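Hallway conversation turned thread

IA: we were arguing at lunch whether anyone had actually written out LisH domain-containing protein end to end. Turns out nobody had. So, for the record, here is the sequence (588 residues) and right after it the structure tokens. Reply here if something looks off.
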Amino acid sequence: MTEHLSSNVVNYLVWRYLQEAGYAKAALALVHDWNDEPDSLPFADKVQTHTLLRMLQDGLWLDDMRAAASNGTEERRYQFGHDHGRPFARYNGDARRRKTLSNRRVRRDEVNGTAADGDAPVRKRKKGSNEAHARVNGDVEMETNGAPAESEAIVSDVDSAVEEEVAPLVTTLSLGESSVRQTEKLMDLAPQTTFLRIDEPGATVVHTEWSPTEPQLLLTAGESLLRIYHIPNSTQPQTDGPAQPVSRDLDIGLNHPTVTAVAWTLPGEAVIGTLEDMTADSGEKMTKGKLYHLSEGGLQTRLVTAVLGSVFSLRYNASANLLLTVCSTDVNSRICVWREIKQEPLYNAQTEHPVFAAEWMSDSTFVVAGYGILEVYEITSENKLVVQKSFTTSTHWENLRYDAVCGIIACSSSSDEAHPQLGLILPTDTEIRTHEFASGEDITGLEFQPIANPASHDAETPRLLATSSDSGFWTVQFWNAKKPFENVQRFSSGSVIEIAFSPDGYLLAAAGTDTVTFWDPEAGVSKAKWKPADNDEQKWDTTLPDARDTELDHLLRWDADGKKLAYKLGNQVAIINFWSMNSTAQKV
């Protein structure tokens, strides 16, 4: 006998779906219109996560089977076609006027553990299209392979007006088979925001990097751009907005260079990699890579050396005062280790594969990854740079992270792969453990949760690794890196282009189309959100000009104190101030 459906059952399933998919305001409107305590219904504890989706998928599957069994005499009842319209971006009233791009893959690597490196000749930014994904921003693509039987339509028992003023309800987190639902209001971080706009013709922001030793200094760099900002800390709300920053352009003597990588080193000092377009005596167009040292807050600049290819990765090891540089062409790479940025490196090595990412593991070891390469190098006691481990791989690895607490290497592949892969290497592993994502679900973010006191981490506690995706239902996932690939918890948070943990590990910032949501991974709820206020429309532009052939790039960068977050979207930067949100005080 078919399961009996009542309006309470249907409403409860819809309410659970709205919560799980992140449509918080709609879920709360349904509660006001129907039942103030849905979880008190007798059957509520029997409903598992995603029950409505499973029922719909089962219905589609049975419909397909029925049509197939009729030998062509009956058609499927439920056909929605391939075009499901443009995805809806939650929290974003202007979503429909923006182009939806199916290929959102721009490299998002780190410098000094948090920053992005430059583009490579072999890795071009992809041109977007207007094709809309059916699984972006909470619009879930249904496959005809799985959940309950058909039932007749149920009409709601009661009709009542929805209240005009509806307080926002936080999206929920799936934790195993349970679902956490939060009703406290999200903190709105928009009012105390400082906006930076770069309007100079030809200038493009690629990097935004806070100084690790002077949290008020922000270095912005990119195409025809090298600028440092002094941004005062906001310690309390100000009626006229945060104090305005002071900026200074830095001159390195090049004609419209492109900064491909940035790393802060000693206090007031930084190193940058550049590319400059040049014309040879023969008239041939060419590009030249160079490494520059900036000192005295950028007042002094010095050419360190010219390089072959592009500088892709700069990693500074503060405890050892060593700088790791990776310069790559489309076929090979040169890895160098410098001390005090002299004319010649202390150590160097050549690879037969292009390398795009590197991370220090200790004062004498580091790991590199690229196209068909993942290797661990060691500076030996005999002062030689040698390969300590080499992992067999044919994957195009683009993102790389190392967890010094548990000694785990994490990596993710590029969107060029048929199925994007997440890779993990535990200390005793001799091979890369891999987990495949669905085709098209590009891994846009890869971050270990920082631990303020590493000594407090015990063997039984999961080591959280966060990943994000710009499509699919689960766009933010947390894995236990100690037990590959144990999924600890996951969020349906719409399309997520960039993620970044606060320095204390308490908050994970997730940037969507133009909104940043701040999640507490331990409690499984969101704590705050940022979206430009209506009166900030002139300060914050999310439109994609028709002439632009790539999507608006996203970056998230926390300052060293966790008091400010720089959110870069295209050629603009929002400095989100956390004067009203002390994460440490809010920990439970």
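OS: looked through it. Residues 187-586 form a domain with the Methylamine Dehydrogenase; Chain H fold (CATH 2.130.10.10).
IA: good, adding that to the notes. Residues 86-183, 583-588 have pLDDT under 50 and may be disordered.
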